[in-house]
């Protein structure tokens, strides 16, 4: 993706939303006023009602085209974000399924579950925050390969049906990760930003059709700032895995908590420290039955 017309040299994906809006709006307002103030006097255009009406119509046409383009880009960006959320949900479900399978294996799945937990923690801490810029994380890749080795070791001692289920869970985890990495760099096509740049240039060019009076400069600045706010909104949604509106790693964190708790409970049960409560004795059951309200006799 190429940067839009009014993006400053420094990337703003990690900046606060207020700062992004401020940079876009102030830059556009200053450019609009400056273009009119500097270029308009050299054109020596008539200051008649007919000419101003023509200038207003021209500006309105450009603004309409630009706002429609930005609306379409916002819809496209939202669609990409929804797809990114789906990709994350699929991977979390695959990791959770493999974690449950490891717990069911009992002692044979302890090492596998520990490797899966370490792998999930590496996704949260290392790969997910940086994958939009750096792509695949080397440490997470090493842990994924170790998880694959541990899965094959665990499957070697299982019945054929259980081994196939476990290897299928491994394939789903690997496939889900590759899909997430493919979508990590998603953004709006460069053609959209090129169109936005061209329309912004036309909007600035229409400012030269007005006389450089103070109230006109103020009007052009306000108009450009409003359109730039829409551009900033699209910019904030441009990359689904980067910025303050990006897809969150919260599903991974929730799954890590669930897997850790499930492993602790399974370990406690294996040690015999946690048993189910015995059923109520018949006398207690009868007393509870007497306390229950009886339906009215018809």
Describe this structure in words.
The protein has 298 residues and is mainly α. The chain has one domain. It is built from nine helices and no strands. The protein has helices spanning 17-43, 49-104, 110-134, 138-156, 160-183, 190-206, 214-237, 250-270, 282-291. Helix 1 packs antiparallel against helix 7 (214-237) and helix 2 (49-104) packs parallel to helix 8 (250-270). The termini are far apart. The model is unreliable at 1-10 (pLDDT under 50). Keywords: Membrane, Transmembrane, Transmembrane helix. Pfam families: Bestrophin-like. This is DUF4239 domain-containing protein.
Summary tags:
DUF4239 domain-containing protein; DUF4239; membrane; transmembrane helix; 9 helices; about 75% helix; transmembrane; about 300 residues
Largest sheet: none
Query: In total, how many beta strands?
Result: 0
The parts where pLDDT drops under 50 for at least 5 residues are: 1-10
The proportion of strand residues reads under 5%
In short:
With 298 residues, the protein is mainly alpha-helical. Helix content is 75%, strand content 0%.
Task: Give the topology.
Elements: H1 17-43, H2 49-104, H3 110-134, H4 138-156, H5 160-183, H6 190-206, H7 214-237, H8 250-270, H9 282-291
């Amino acid at each position: 993706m190429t940067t839009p017309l009014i993006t400053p040299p420094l990337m703003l994906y990690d900046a606060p939303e207020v700062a992004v809006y401020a940079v876009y709006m102030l830059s556009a307002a200053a450019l609009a006023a400056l273009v009119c103030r500097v270029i308009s006097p050299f054109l020596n255009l008539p200051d008649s009602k007919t000419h101003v009406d023509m200038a207003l119509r021209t500006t309105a046409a450009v603004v309409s085209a630009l706002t429609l383009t930005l609306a379409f880009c916002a819809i496209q960006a939202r669609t990409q974000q929804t797809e990114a959320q789906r990709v994350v949900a699929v991977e979390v479900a695959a990791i959770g399924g493999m974690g449950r399978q490891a717990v069911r294996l009992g002692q044979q799945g302890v090492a596998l579950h520990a490797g899966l937990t370490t792998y999930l923690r590496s996704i949260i801490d290392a790969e997910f925050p940086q994958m939009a810029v750096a792509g695949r994380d080397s440490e997470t890749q090493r842990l994924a390969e170790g998880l694959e080795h541990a899965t094959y070791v665990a499957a070697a001692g299982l019945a054929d049906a259980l081994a196939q289920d476990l290897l299928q869970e491994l394939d789903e985890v690997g496939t889900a990760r590759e899909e997430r990495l493919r979508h990590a760099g998603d953004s709006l096509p460069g053609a959209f930003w090129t169109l936005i740049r061209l329309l912004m240039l036309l909007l600035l060019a229409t400012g030269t059709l007005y006389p450089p009076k103070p109230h006109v400069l103020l009007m052009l600045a306000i108009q450009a700032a409003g359109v730039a706010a829409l551009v900033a909104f699209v910019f904030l949604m441009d990359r689904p895995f980067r910025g303050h509106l990006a897809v969150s790693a919260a599903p991974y964190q929730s799954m890590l908590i669930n897997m850790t708790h499930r492993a602790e409970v399974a370990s406690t049960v294996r040690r015999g420290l946690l048993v189910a409560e015995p059923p109520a004795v018949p006398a207690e059951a009868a007393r509870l039955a007497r306390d229950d309200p009886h339906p009215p006799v018809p």
